[in-house]
# Entry
Amino acid sequence: MGSSSGGRTNRSERPHLGYRADALAGEALTTSIRVRGPEHAATLNLMANLADAYYLQGKYGQAEALLGKTLEIMARVRGPQHPYTLGIVASFADFYQREGKYALAESRAEQALVGRRRVLGPDHPNTLSSAADLALAYVSQGKFAEGERLMRETLVQNERPPGSAGEAVEV
# Structure
């Protein structure tokens, strides 16, 4: 059954596919843990993807728990300032923002922004994304001046040529 989106089907029209994909991702994760170990990069990637799948299916508790476990392992294995770890922190900010947990979103977005500025540099696209995430968290809490200030800074930074605000640290 197609939707009005050019013949593609809508998720709500095919919920069984989401649950089958969820089951397959769970099997892949279990296999990866057994074969590669829980700290392998591919295993951690599968964990983050499965957490996202849980979120999309409305399984928020499972999503948050798995993302938290992923963050804990990633921080221990790669370090709290590794770009992949900071990506998981940014995912948490997005998760909390979508859940309406704006204070938590602000905290995680700020953590991701500070780390990404230090590790990737101020003009890296991921850094700019974290700045926009933090600005959104500010605005969502009624902190309009802070949100506007940060968004203006981000827009100015985004207009600069890459590397003009300082070099990123190679990882």
Summary: Residues 1-17, 167-171 have pLDDT under 50 and may be disordered. The radius of gyration is 18 Å.
